[in-house]
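REQUEST FORM: STRUCTURE PREDICTION
Request ID: SP-0412
Submitted by: Lab K.M.
Chain count: 1
Length (residues): 153
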Amino acid sequence: MDIKYKKLNDLAKVPTRGSDSAAGYDLYAATEGKFTIYPHSTGMVSTGLSLELPEGYFGAIFARSGLAAKQGLRPANCVGVVDSDYTGEIKVALVNLSNNEYTIENGEIHHLVGLNWWKITLFWRFWGFLRNFCKSSLSGVQGQSPAASPTSI
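STATUS: Completed
RESULT:
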């Protein structure tokens, strides 16, 4: 699938894939100078890009396991969603869960977030599978009740 993008400034870098088998595209920070996310706080990181997604799809921004596990950084809402009708700049709200400052420079954060394209109907099928899996996994644990079902849309 071809996704159209627009560089909104000279600092923006085109998303890349680490390999042909990579699950998504790596996004890069487009910041002037250094940008620090302090411990237990959230910072909004610009990418300098806007995207044009086909109708019926959305972009999902996930934490990359390396920095999430080693540095304590992840998207503040766990998974960022880019709707197909959103045409503004893609920004990532990153939360620093560690006790250390984390400083970002322009072009950094590669391998921090992956951008994947999901067909909306496929996502809901996956969500249903995951919800049922979690329910069945938790139902056998004493003292734990199954996760509450989300409200149908």
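NOTES: Confidence is low (pLDDT under 50) at residues 137-153.
Reviewed by: T.R.
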